[in-house]
Structure prediction request, 154 residues.
Amino acid sequence: MKSLLTATLFAALASTSALAGAGHSGDDRAYGEPGTADHPARILRIDMKETADGMTFNPKKFAVHKGEQIRFVISNVGEFDHELVLGTLEENLGHAEEMAKNPDMEHDDPNAIRLAPNGKGEILWMFTKAGEFDFSCLLPGHRESGMFGTIIVQ
Prediction:
């Protein structure tokens, strides 16, 4: 019985960590690691907003090089709170389910930022592995309204 409880607790903790995306210990994320201020960074500007067709990021897709550090300069030019969360598609979809259960959840993670209308902020990120990754607004209904994008790391 004790080993069953231990196994269940371990599985629950592992699942919670995977859903959090940014809750990994260390820098073992598939999509990279937090950047460092002393390393050069290319600036990418992203606007978050509502449109007649839903909600969106502009741009929705971009390419970076493996090993490149990016300074995301993010502006919420919309009328609602929005967030940008970097991750794998699987992690972001899982975290979106958690956000649906806890819509007031706030992030204090280096791969995520939440901005009020007219807010501005930055994420400094180093892309250490090649692949295709996701960025999404995980506030309930926002991703479903089109607020997601793709990062291609070459």
Notes: The first strand starts at residue 33 and ends at 34. The CA atoms of residues 47 and 61 lie 12 Å apart.
